[in-house]
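Lecture notes, unit on protein representations.

Consider one protein chain, 274 amino acids long.
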Amino acid sequence: MTIDAHQHFWQFDPVRDAWITDDMTNIRRDFLPADLEPVLAQNGIDGCVAVQASQTEAETEFLVSMARIYDIVKGVVGWVDLQSPALHDRLTHFAQYPKIKGYRHIAQTEPADFLTRPAVMAGIRMLAEFGLTYDVLIYPTQLKAALHLVRAVPEVNFVIDHLAKPDIKKQDISRWSNFMAALARQPNVCCKLSGLVTEADWQHWSKRDFFPYLDVVFDHFGPDRLLFGSDWPVCLVAADYTQVKTLIEEYVQPWGEEVRAKVFGGNAVAFYDL
C-alpha cells in the first residue's frame, strides 16, 4: 500500500484559517477528499493520513467524518486539548473511532518551551495508554524542547513533521542538523519527508536545494523511519502534488525499490498501524 502520510482537508474559514495569508491565494478555498482522490490516483498513491489543521475537537470529528465516507483516508491525526484535566475522558470518547491514529498540536505557534511544560508532557504521555502517536510540528528554534520531550516520554512514538521546518530558503543547516541527529538517536522518533517546498523560495526552488537536508535525515534516521508526506494542499503555494512526490522519488531512487516501498507506504503503515 502506497501512503501519503501527511495532508489536510478543510472548509475554508477566513477567520479560523487566518494562517492562510494573502500570498497563499490559491489555497484560500475548500479542500476535501473528493478533490484529493483523483490526485492520488494520478500519482499512484492508495491512501493518505489526514492531519489536523485547527485546534478544536470539531476538527477531529470533521476528519473522522471524512475518513468514514472516503476510503482513501486510512488514518487521522486529530487534535485534543493535551493540557485538559478531562483529557483521559476525551481520549476515551475518541477511542470509538479506530481511524484516529494519533494527535497533534500546532506547537510551532507556541513559545519555545511549550513541549516541555509538565501538563503538555503528561498529556502526551497519556497517549501511550491508548496506543496513539504524536506528530511534532515545530520550528528549528524548538528542537531542543522536542529532544527533551522524546527522551522524557519514551513510551510514545513520535514523528517529526516537515523535517522540523529547516530554513531551506536561507540554506541554514548546521544547528538544525545537529538536533536532528540527536532526535534520530531516540528509537521512538520517526520523521516525515514533507513540507519541504514551502520552506524554500516558492517561485525559484530547485530539487538540489533539498538534497542536503534529505542527506541529513537519511544518514541519521535511515530508510526505516522516514515517511513520505505531500503536505497537500499547503504544498500548492510552491509546487503541485506530482512535483512534490517526484522530488522524493528521485532522491530515493538510488536506494532501490525496497527503500522506496518503505518511504512511500510501508513505514507509514507501521508507524500509524494503518
